[in-house]
Amino acid sequence: MIIAKNALPGLLDKLAAEYEVYAPVKQGAYSLYKQICNGAEADFGYVNSKIPPKGILFPQSEKLYSYSVTGEGTSLEECVDTRKKVIFGIRPCDAKSLLLMDNVFNNDKFQDPYYLTRRSNTILVGMACNDPAGTCFCTSMDGGPFDQSGLDLLLTDIGEAYVVEAVSQKGKDLAAALALGAADDSQKAAAAEARESAEVACAVNTVGLKARLDVNFYDPIWEKFHEKCLGCAACTYSCPTCHCFDIVDEAKDCNGCRVRNWDSCMFPLFTLHGSGHNPRTSGKERMRQRIMHKFKYFVDNFNATACVGCGRCIKNCPVNLDVREVLADIRGSEARSDK
Amino acid sequence: MQKLASAIQDMAKKLLEEKKVDLVVGFAGGSLPLRSTPCFIRKPEDAEKLTWDYSCENNLANYLRKREGKVAVVAKGCDVRSIVALINENQVSRDNLYIIGIPCSGMVDRVKADEAVEGKDLLAVEENGGSLILKGKGFSKEVKLDELLHDTCKVCRYGNPVVYDTIIGDTVPDKAEDSFADVAAFESLSPAERRAALAAEFSKCIRCYACRNACPMCYCTECFVDCSSPEWIKKSTDTADNIMFQAGRVFHSAGRCADCGACDRACPMGINLRGMTRKMVKEVKDLFGYETGVGMGEKPALATFTAGDPEPFLVKE
Which residues of chain A make contact with B226, given a CB cutoff of 8 A? Predict the structure, then answer.
């Protein structure tokens, strides 16, 4: 199937009439996924967004329910978002991150209705990466610039148009509803060529990483990584797989709500007990937790690494603490090679 | 720059070999274009990792508190001002500190570089006289280095360290007095316009607290935003609370902020934080004639008083 670029704004308008449409929007020098009212707001001249689109399904601050207490009793209103959504132009790495997050919010022990309702009502229209960034290492994390995992449709930029591939039934249904035309052979060939020439230049060798992490909890190597770390959440909040949260009640007089907020293992407050005791006393333990959670605990729990190689933590770190170097150091030398 | 880097390496090596210090805090080459990274050197043979150029933007004063032993720090003008402020607040001991001062003519703002290439992926940077050539896949753009400097650096009058044990590099020329034109422009807005301008800026905040954590003067054991009883601001992201957080931070650093711009540089969302911090810097300068971190032994403006202090807030006209 095919979408001509000049027809895209109109198509997004049409989608926006039925769905909440989220697409990359320019904000200064960077892009963010924002809800758009008309197609002209979207700008697909992006490498990837500054902050991942995970917040559309798992908002940074999310009201779970609100309550009020009156003379007649207590009333409670649950806030489950059932609106239909389309994320248009999600990158393959971010789509993959949602598959990873599914493990957390939908497993034998827990089914999170807030996330899962949004998830089932959301269509993911992917945009393949013809030109991955220098900080991308998705191919080292079981993904790729044209990876279809988790997507419903995948678009490939061929210059004047996007070649569209349906990945799931949801995607096929959407394509049918939009009455997309068929791509001709030369357009299909152009998409195939784009796929061939897309190169992820950076590789992170993870062979043996998990085995090292299984045994190195007390290794002196953890003494050094955190020394320059500021302990902010630029890495975790810009990570598409970080999913830790904190639940607070926000109340005024007899009215209030329960809110779920993103939290970060890099904050001292993250593990501070009510007693005042903190099991993770310094940056060392906090940094170790972040790496362990992504590359060991998540693997133990769900048999997958909680990193998709999007490179956002590398770009956003205020002191250039590069996770690729941390992983290389943990594995030993030569773990990372720039082709 | 190369010469400067090797002079810094030699000095660090000498200090460590002669056991004058146990640690040298400086910069090493980073993993991205236009990016150096803070590094900690403890062995003389590691001194060769040290570097110096226009990408050493972090304020290393942030790494000096609660250190044991003697520490040397590679410090540009603004780092030194923060160090002086920390010494004046008894947070760092001058006796245990060796300042390798570096005259600085400014650091590159990566946001400006990203803007110059319209958000495309920057892969390499080459120097060409007074210009930088920004390169990526399918583009190459030459931009004057001066145009890429942080706004802080453009108005900084203390590029030459005010205190040091040794100085490496040529002193930079003096600059004219800061006119605070940016603050004046903000002040000239109506209250509604000011509110709108602040809301537009702080709606971008993701509360990662990189600004607070990058600030050498933000060293409270418990930050007011982390306090749960009383809860000064909501834990949820909300533009009004985001503004309250910054306003609280700025008031708390009144007379303590050296206008180094570390907060602004750390912000991943590119929020103009100096709009607020500089308003306070200007207020303190206008009211008390005080500039932070330029005089060793000075009491911070709000930690002392003189009979001549203006008290406009007590006078009702």
Answer: 267, 269
